[in-house]
Amino acid sequence: MSTAGRRSGSQSGLAAHHEAIAAARQLIRLNNLNEDAHRRLMRILDAAGQRGVALQQFKDLAKLLKEELGVTPDAASVALATSSVAIAGPRSRTRPSCRTSAPVAPPRRHCLGAGRIGQT
Predict the structure, then answer these.
(1) Nearest Cα to 36, choosing from 72, 61, 15, 70?
(2) Rounded distance between C-alpha atoms, residue 62 and residue 37, angstroms
(3) Domains and CATH numbers, the chain
(4) Among candidate residues 42, 40, 39, the one with its CA nearest the CA of residue 54
(5) Phi and psi of 17, rounded to 5°?
(6) Is the pLDDT of residue 36 over 50?
(7) Taking CA 82 as the corner, what is the angle to CA 77 and CA 87, rounded to the nearest 5 degrees?
(8) How would DSSP label each residue in 12-76?
(9) Model confidence over 63-114: pLDDT tens digits?
């Protein structure tokens, strides 16, 4: 496939994500306490590579439910947010640190026969 073909394909995929995000947000505007609509939006955002926005959506949902109903998000919403956090690392744009918390000892050198008296 040509570069132009790949670009137009990714642009159409991006447009589909934007449309799906807009539709999910419209559902939330119609009933902002609908957890299913919030989860749908979180899944779409996650699929679009916007994990941070998806997690913020969960936090907003949790705050809304607490303020309006005095409850916490249901298990399905929590599981979705937890899975987004668990897999956020591989797609994140930050580079992982190569440092470890504990110092690493230098490798030991093994010399067979070294230090043995009377052997050549």
Answers:
(1) 61
(2) 14
(3) 3-91 (1.25.40)
(4) 42
(5) -65, -45
(6) yes
(7) 130
(8) HHHHHHHHHHHHHHHHHHH-TT-HHHHHHHHHHHHHTT-HHHHHHHHHHHHHHHHHHHS----HH
(9) 999 999 999 999 999 999 998 766 555 444 433 444 444 444 444 444 455 4
